[in-house]
Amino acid sequence: MPLFPGSKYYISKEKMSWHLAGKFCKSNGMELASIETEAENNALLDVIDDENTKEFYWLSGSDLGSEGTFYWAGTVEELGTLSPSSNCDVAALGKALCDQRIEVVEEKLKGVTTLMNQKLCEFQIKALRESGEQQKQICEYRIKEANQQISNALKTTQPRTYGRTVSEHVASNLMPLFPGSKYYISKEKMSWHLASTFCKSNGMELASIETEAENNAILGVIGNENPKESYWLSGSDYGSEGTFYWTGTGLKISGFTYFERRQPDNYGGNEHCLQFWSASSTLAWNDHHCHLKFRFICEVIENVL
Ligand SMILES: [Ca+2]
Ligand SMILES: [Ca+2]
Ligand SMILES: [Ca+2]
Question: Which of 128, 141, 208, 265 could in theory staple to 246 by disulfide, Cβ–Cβ 3.0 to 4.6 A?
């Protein structure tokens, strides 16, 4: 649906987990929606408001890898900082944050209202009315604290540009290792989620390895290091435990694979992110804990850059 100038939307009837919804969009050449302006927000609300039964809809926003700091995974633009407390009435806190964020965002980002689902605000206002006075008092301090964090976060993040600009450092280090693709092989170490965000913010994705030739080309560079380092790739089994897909393309990993013997093993029941693993004498694929910091490889398809 061409709801809004510059964008088209697919509004699903299907229901999926957030991760698999993201995979679905990616495999169809899209991203989960990122809402940058009130006009865009309203255009979407107009459509989903018409539904008889009210449904919930995933957007690209997430704070995976940066708890409390939300970003649009579609555009990797930050939303601001939320800090709800388990001791606090979340509805009341949410209401204050809801108001505050619209106000602060408008002021700091010159009218670009990154937030917010108005229905959520209405719900939270209603919940606030229904919550007791005592609960409100407990919350007030926390609200103040959280608001301060929002202001601070906006100040520090405002000048950054996301999504379209490739930093000079990255541009000068792109390697045309394999026909049709260029790669950025990092020296920096980050969690899988933040590595993915880093790649996206430079117009790329974490690398997806489709063929043995591509695998060999990358190994040709990273395999000569001493000591060997591990590198994140775009593979993940988030939302489909045991079935890995490339988040860079949204496609299931099938055909060529290069897993280390006994991998993937979902060690500790909690390994969902794929990497070139250095724990053995040679580098091979392994599923690992996504929050751990490793080097990573970004890939850009030629003629995108
Ligand atoms: Ca590739
Ligand atoms: Ca897993
Ligand atoms: Ca593993």
Answer: 208
What is the CATH class of 168-301? Answer: alpha beta
- Each residue of 111-152: pLDDT tens digit? 333 333 344 444 444 444 444 433 333 333 334 444 454 444
- Same topology, domains 18-157 and 168-301? Answer is yes
Ligand nearest to the CA of 270: 2
* pLDDT tens per residue, range 44-101: 888 787 666 677 889 888 888 888 778 888 777 766 433 333 334 444 545 555 554 4
Residue 116 backbone dihedrals phi, psi, to 5 degrees: -165, 160
Q: Where exactly are the structural domains of the chain?
A: 18-157, 168-301
Ligand nearest to the CA of 273: 2
CB within 8 A of 163, min separation 6: which ones? 75, 76, 77, 200, 201, 203
Phi, psi of 84 (to 5 degrees): -70, 150
- Residue 187 CA to ligand 3 center (angstroms) comes to 22
Q: What distance in angstroms lies between residue 289's CA and the mean position of ligand 2's atoms?
A: 9
User: Given pLDDT bands bounded at 50, 70 and 90, which one contains residue 174?
Assistant: confident
Give me ligand 3 centre to Cα 154, in Å. Answer: 37
Total-model pTM: 0.68
Give how far the C-alpha of residue 215 lies from the chain's centroid of Cα atoms, to the nearest Å. 25
Q: Which one of the ligands is nearest to 269 CA?
A: 2
Which residues make up the environment of ion ligand 3, defined by Cβ < 5 Å?
A: 263, 265, 267, 271, 286-287
Q: Hey, what CATH class is 18-157 in? A: alpha beta
Q: Is 208 helix (H, G, I), strand (E, B) or coil?
A: coil
How far apart are the CA of 111 and the centre of ligand 1, in A? 39
